[in-house]
Design a protein that fits this description.
about 200 residues, Phosphorylase Kinase, domain 1, nine-stranded antiparallel sheet, 9 strands
Length: about 200
């Protein structure tokens, strides 16, 4: 009973904060396979930074760098509204010797999506040289949606479900999985929206 009341109270506290509309990149759901959505995304522009370190630290390392850019640390001191999602993708470094060694993580690419209407030409130049601007071309992804705090086990479980669903449907994917997070850090675990994306050719 106490646990139920606590969860209800947390939900009531968090609802006004996460109920506000937060802009996301435009996409169309083309097909659903159980809990999986096949989406076609329109092009959008991101601010991104490559950070090194373990997966559980990547977001915390990247956030102040990218937040600085969108909150005015740019040439022109232009400020942008926060959007969603914040994406994290492992970046691999190919090992050349010995040849039997597999690719190892070189870091994580963390991206903030810039608001609709912002182009590479109109986006202000970052002051921090670690921040790069890039247009993500229109692409097709398979996405699985789930809740909870981040953990390797939670991510691995849902990535496994996503791959299994695609294999059952006879669909291939390319590239590394993209972890997409939509909520501020104070959001209760049971109200969080997390997604994993895989690119579909």
């Amino acid at each position: 009973m106490f646990k139920r009341k606590l969860l209800t109270a947390l939900a009531l506290i968090a609802a006004p904060l996460i109920g506000q509309a937060i802009e996301e990149p435009a996409y169309e759901v083309q097909r659903r396979i159980d809990k999986i959505e096949l989406r076609q995304y329109a092009p959008y522009v991101v601010a991104e930074v490559l950070v090194t370190g373990p997966a559980d630290k990547a977001g915390n390392l990247a956030f102040p760098i990218l937040a600085g850019y969108i909150f005015g640390k740019n040439k022109g001191e232009r400020k942008f509204a926060m959007t969603a999602p914040v994406t994290t993708t492992p970046v691999k470094l190919e090992m050349t010797a010995p040849v039997t060694q597999t690719a190892t993580p070189a870091g994580y690419l963390v991206q903030f999506v810039l608001p609709k209407g912002v182009t590479l030409d109109s986006a202000p130049e970052p002051i921090d040289s670690r921040v790069k601007l890039r247009e993500v071309p229109g692409n097709r992804v398979a996405a699985i949606i789930y809740s909870g705090f981040w953990s390797e086990a939670n991510e691995a479980e849902h990535l496994g479900q996503l791959k299994a669903a695609l294999q059952s449907a006879g669909l291939a994917w390319t590239g590394e999985p993209v972890l997409s997070r939509y909520d501020p850090p104070w959001t209760p675990w049971f109200m969080r929206r997390n997604e994993i994306w895989l690119s579909i050719p």
